Amino acid sequence: MEIWYFLDSGLKGPAYNMALDEKLMDWHREKKINPVIRFYGWNPPTLSVGYFQNVEKEIDFSAVEKHGLGFVRRPTGGRGVLHDDELTYSVIVNEDHPKMPATVTEAYRVISEGLLEGFRYLGLEAEFSIPRTEEEKDRLKRPRSAVCFDAPSWYELVVEGRKIAGSAQTRQKGVILQHGSIIMNIDEDKLFDIFKYPNQRVRERMQRAFKSKAVPINALTERNITIEEMKGAMKVGFEKGLDVKLEPLVLTAEQEEEVQELMTSKYDTEKWNYKL
């Protein structure tokens, strides 16, 4: 069975989290490490925005500050995500890996098999979101909201039609990075505070509609699933879904230094985060 690496990097700052995902891509491209599954969290809780988002137009930074949130721009696309009570995962693997289809959507499907198996291990009746009508496909191209969990995309995970995990993918110099959020519990007021709206009535309408579009994991179960339980289930899920064996990856002092350098030179800068 093929050996992939597994890294649980714990709670880290926003710039560190994005820098480590990028460095894992670099090291895998340079054949220094095998494909990697990484789990992580955020300290402080953080708003991340997609690479192409216009933050001046879409984000209320006074609310970000009021709630004591970190802020970072991801190297992946997609919309704004509030990383708070959640498990974040990333998968780093070469585009030409035998398991990886050429198209982005099909690669989503293959990687997300790990998530699907993890949720099923916990007893959740999860399934893939597959937009079927032309209207649904068109809506994915032109999202109405800056909020990531407002609607599921191709092959994201849903329970009874409501999104339970949001993911984004980028491909850089032959390497795929897919990372995403598994929301355990959510403060909807905080989430909707940090985005801008044409008026209060629009915000209220969107927030009411949100309940039918997305759901945190612990709203689906009678017991409280912990982050550690979720990590264990997702580790089993990725091994089963991707048919691999996961072995621990321990970063060297030199690798940690590389992450710190990239964090300082890129993901901690206003030039990157605000596209100045």
UniProtKB/TrEMBL annotation:
Residues annotated as site: Lowers pKa of active site Cys: K163
Pfam families (UniProt xref): LplA-B_cat
Annotated catalysed reactions: octanoyl-[ACP] + L-lysyl-[protein] = N(6)-octanoyl-L-lysyl-[protein] + holo-[ACP] + H(+)
Active site: C148
Domain BPL/LPL catalytic: 31-246
PROSITE patterns recorded: BPL_LPL_CATALYTIC
EC numbers for this chain: 2.3.1.181
Matching InterPro entries: aa-tRNA-synth_II/BPL/LPL, BPL_LPL_catalytic, LipM, Octanoyltrans_LipM/LipL
Alphabetical keyword list: Acyltransferase, Ligase, Transferase
Family: Belongs to the octanoyltransferase LipM family.
Function: Catalyzes the transfer of endogenously produced octanoic acid from octanoyl-acyl-carrier-protein onto the lipoyl domain of GcvH, an intermediate carrier during protein lipoylation.
Additional comment: In the reaction, the free carboxyl group of octanoic acid is attached via an amide linkage to the epsilon-amino group of a specific lysine residue of lipoyl domains of lipoate-dependent enzymes. The reaction proceeds via an octanoyl-thioester enzyme intermediate.
Name this protein carries in UniProt: Octanoyltransferase LipM
